[in-house]
Amino acid sequence: MLAAVLKDFNQLVLEDVPMPKPGMGEAVVRIRSCGVCATDYKAIKGIRRNVEFPFIAGHEAAGVVAAVGPGVDHVCEGDEVICQPSGYCGFCRNCREGNTHYCEHAFTTGGDGPKETWPGAFAEYMRTRAAALFHKPANVSFDAGALTEPLSGAWKGVIEHSEMHVGDDVVVIGVGGIGLLCLMVARAAGAGRLIAIDPSGYARQNALALGATHAIDPVNENAKKRVYEILPDGPDLVVEAAGPIQAVKLMVDLRRRGTKWNVFGITTHETFELDGGLTHFLEGRMDASFGTTALAMQKAIRLMERGLVDPGKIISHRFPLSRIHEAMEIMGAPERNKVMIHP
């Protein structure tokens, strides 16, 4: 089969590799769509270094079951499925407590996080555990289905962890792919006023088209002043979905009494300061969210199936696997959103 194999940083090679075969409890999926996550791009470009070569990246996937191994009855050949990239054992303490993304024996297909990494979905076929597969609703496209994992992360952060309520005024800092999904989830959940903050005019336009009531340019405007002009009582929830430490510092600065705030986008080990007494008397609540769970995946699928959120709307570019090098160049461009690979 054809696969994009990372031989070393900045050495992505298209080549024929052996077809995977399913073992006990496993399935092989014919990949139809796979999103390019920033973590994939960073691995290929050498920005993140926790990669063992050779490596097949790609973890936002959907496709058709091509083969199943012994003991599999949840799915069968020909089923259209969505792939959860993080597999878990189901038996350790964390799994038994419902925190499957903390699993002590986790693996990932083409992704980041667990030490055990299986070949991912920048390939025509991918092997995974059948337990990591969800049936794709007929009214959900393969492209949208492939984005279930990032959509589920947005649901987990905004709804499950930060407990957004109907009518809440919400600020999303950073409206790239994941920020737009957070915004769309907040809109579907009944946000009152929904403010997007991003230095990119392209990103702000996308946010307004997908449900933001206001958009702020933090480079040419005083972001805090503008937020409080729009929301005189301040935000109920602030979601940082940008990544840079400056976005986290802005989130901290936007708080008023009772504001909930979610450290969602930053993954680098940088520091920010909190005034202890002020934080105490503001009586807000800080949350964070990473990864996904089976519950979050199922909730995201319901959002799509019910027509409440269509993650396909954030896609800006599509490429066949044979043009994956072009896709990686687009990933570095300023005016792009979600990039999809079609093996």
CATH superfamily of the largest domain: Medium-chain alcohol dehydrogenases, catalytic domain
Strand content: 25-35%
Reported for the largest beta sheet, the result is:
7 strands, mixed
The level of helicity is 25-40%
How many runs of DSSP E, i.e. beta strands? 18
Rg calculated over all Cα atoms: 20 Å
Please work out how many helical segments DSSP would assign: 11
**CATH fold node name of the largest domain:** Quinone Oxidoreductase, Chain A, domain 1
Number of domains: 2
Descriptive account of the structure:
By secondary structure, the protein is α/β, with parallel strands linked by helices. The chain is 28% helix and 25% strand. The model has no long low-confidence stretch (mean pLDDT 96). The protein folds into two domains: 2-150 and 292-342, Medium-chain alcohol dehydrogenases, catalytic domain (Quinone Oxidoreductase, Chain A, domain 1); 163-288, NAD(P)-binding Rossmann-like Domain (Rossmann fold), CATH 3.40.50.720. Helix 4 (148-161) crosses helix 5 (177-188) and helix 4 (148-161) packs across helix 10. The protein has helices at 38-45, 93-96, 142-146, 148-161, 177-188, 201-209, 223-230, 245-253, 276-282, 294-305, 324-331; strands at 2-8, 11-16, 26-36, 60-68, 80-83, 86-87, 107-109, 116-118, 125-129, 133-135, 170-173, 194-197, 214-216, 237-240, 260-263, 285-288, 315-320, 338-342. Strand 15, helix 9 and strand 16 (285-288) form a beta-alpha-beta unit.
